[in-house]
Amino acid sequence: MREPVSIGLPAVPGPDLQELMGAVARGDSDAFAGVYDRVAGPVLGLVRSVLRDPAQAEEVTQEVLVEVWRRAAHFQPEKGSAMAWIMTMAHRRAVDRVRSAQAATDREEKAALLARTPAFDEVTEQVEARLEREQVRRCLRTLTERQRESVTLAYYRGLTYREVAELLALPLGTVKTRLRDGLIRMRDCLGVSA
Amino acid sequence: MTTVDLHTLTGAYAVHALGDDERDAFERHLAVCEPCAQEVRELAATASRLGLAVATTPSPALRERVLEQITTVRQEPPRVPRQGRGAGAVRSGRGLSRFVLAACLAAAVGFGGVAVWQHGEARDAQRRAEQAQDRSERLAEVLASGDARVISNELPGGATATVVVSLEQGRAAFLASDMPPPPEGKVYQLWFDHEGTMRPAGLMDPGARDTAMLMEGPLDGASGMGITVEPPGGSTEPTSEPVAAMPFGV
Ligand SMILES: [Zn+2]
User: Fold this and answer.
1) B222-250: per-residue pLDDT in tens?
2) What would the pLDDT profile of A19-74 be if each residue is shown by its tens digit?
3) How many CA atoms, within 13 angstroms, populate the side-chain half-sphere of residue B18?
4) Domain range summary for chain A, segments of one domain joined by +
5) Using CA of residue A68, residue B72, residue B58, residue A38, what is the dihedral sign?
6) What CATH number matches the domain at A17-116, 1.10.1740.10, 2.40.110.10, 3.40.50.620, 2.60.40.10?
7) Which of A24, A99, A138, B197 sits most deeply, having the most CB atoms within 10 A of its CB?
8) Stretch A165-193: mean pLDDT
9) Residue-wise over B142-162: b if at least 16 C-beta within 10 A, else e?
10) What is the pLDDT of residues B162-213, one digit of tens each?
């Protein structure tokens, strides 16, 4: 069974994110402040998980939020939620940064990634964020260990699937399949529709 | 990379795990494959949930910096969708219309259909299935090819015809939507145009209003294609005026 999608966290009173994005697209900077309050925490958390360097993470987060302002008119609500649009942008930016910075990361450092679990250990006050975290964790547990490994390395660490394959000594096709199957299982568990 | 492979890249694409070349190739595929595009939307939304789970609390200073910076940043205007659909309009990339997407679906059904065929008893049915499979794979390959050139044309009577040409693969695909049925007892025949000399390139299914087919035979330097109405089984050279002629512009 699919639960309704709740993706507008953290909970901040007032109009919802989609409405705010409409106003931002028309140049409303007050509405942008509202968008900031709803998305800055998730964006920073995600970017930091990929970059791991707090100063760089803040820098990229700032870039992402300014990009949200700049490109607000390109957001198409019929193609998905504003949160998904912004988080996708954030992930893309973080990944671009990590790949340009460490074009030649040595294998050892990558191997160290294996030992780390995603950064779920942040202290966040918002109840909604905590609930979201619990739900995602619960759903991650429904993946096979192999799927979980591939998904978290690619998403939280920003590795390409080739890097994941190399790291896990797996054929490329296997990693592709695991990424897709893992995300599909997450989608169904979280009840995401788009 | 075959198209079967391409369809499995949705997950890797949604988490930005493709290299640049593969990403570009897959984005071209997404432009013509609605099932993949839909799956990507869902998996990207799913991935963003993973991101929400690691939310943290930013410093008040960051908020100030961002809100200050946007006062100096000009916003981009909304993108105006391109309308150019005139005769021979060349389009590429995103925004291909419904019937191109239908073509991808047709190809996908083709793959899925093989299992059914393989349970068929007649040996020749199996052979036909293999040929169909081969054709639909090649069709999908042309649609997804890196150098695909898309020529679209509105035909008299409101039908839309599109040719996807891949020089790299030396093949062309033909797609049509809302084709009026051919005159009683006739078929539409496709032709490759070599400076006015027409080479047969296959027959449209007379019962189909929407079609997606691989044009028969290699491009071989053809400069365009044409469609004529012919007797059943087709002709070796056109016996009627073309209902459409589409230069490839290459
Ligand atoms: Zn596809």
Assistant:
1) 888 888 888 888 888 888 888 888 888 76
2) 999 999 999 999 999 999 999 999 999 999 999 889 999 999 999 999 999 999 99
3) 18
4) 17-116, 120-190
5) negative
6) 1.10.1740.10
7) A24
8) 95
9) bbbbeebbbbbbebeeebbbb
10) 787 888 778 888 777 777 888 888 888 888 888 888 888 988 887 777 677 7
Q: Would the pLDDT of A100 be above 70?
A: yes
Nearest chain B CA: its distance from A176 CA (Å): 6
| C-alpha–C-alpha distance, residues B242 and B228, integer Å | 4
CA pair distance A160, B53, nearest whole angstrom: 21
Helix or strand run (H / E) with residue B149: strand B149-154
Chain A residue closest in CA terms to B1: A173
Query: What 3-state class would DSSP assign to A194?
Result: coil
A107-115 and A161-168 are packed helices; what angle lies between their axes, rounded to 10 degrees?
Answer: 80
Query: At what angle are helices A82-101 and A17-25 packed, to 10 degrees?
Result: 70
Put simply, the answer to whether A187 touches B11 (Cβ < 8 Å) is: no
Test B43 with A183 for CB contact under 8 angstroms: yes
Sign of CA pseudo-dihedral A153, A154, A157, A160: positive
Determine, for residues A49 and B54 on separate chains, whether the beta-carbon distance falls below 8 Å: yes
Ligand 1 centroid vs A118 CA: distance in angstroms? Answer: 31
Q: Give the contacts of A126 (CB within 8 A, at least 6 positions apart).
A: A9, A10, A11, A41, B55
Q: Please tell me the distance from the alpha carbon of residue A117 to that of residue B17, in angstroms, as a whole number.
A: 19
In chain B, domain spans? 3-51, 98-144, 149-247
